[in-house]
Amino acid sequence: MKSKILPNWNINDGPIRIHSTDDLGAILKARRKKQKMTQSDLAALAGTGVRYIVDLENGKPTARIGPALKLIEWLGLEVTIQEKRIDQGAFRLH
């Protein structure tokens, strides 16, 4: 499943909800390109291989989280986690 977030989202629009690895990959790729960096540039900065960058940008669901968090930081982004808002009457797991 490819991301439906981009090209409609702009970093200046504020936080965005990520629903899939495809969404995350699309956002990271767009941010890297906005900063005029190649995949090789980003890999060197983050201390990872180009193959990892390619996999992450393509939404590979088995990509390791540790290097992804480093890449997010190098791209000037951050990850925030909050409790999901549940509509009244919706099923909620405990």
TrEMBL record:
UniProtKB keywords: DNA-binding
Signal peptide limits: none
Any one GO MF annotation of this record: DNA binding
Gene3D superfamilies referenced in this protein's UniProt entry, alphabetically: lambda repressor-like DNA-binding domains
The HTH cro/C1-type domain, residue ranges: 28-82
Keyword Methyltransferase listed: no
Keyword DNA-binding attached: yes
Pfam family name, one: HTH_3
Record protein name field: DNA-binding protein
Origin species: Leptospirillum ferriphilum YSK
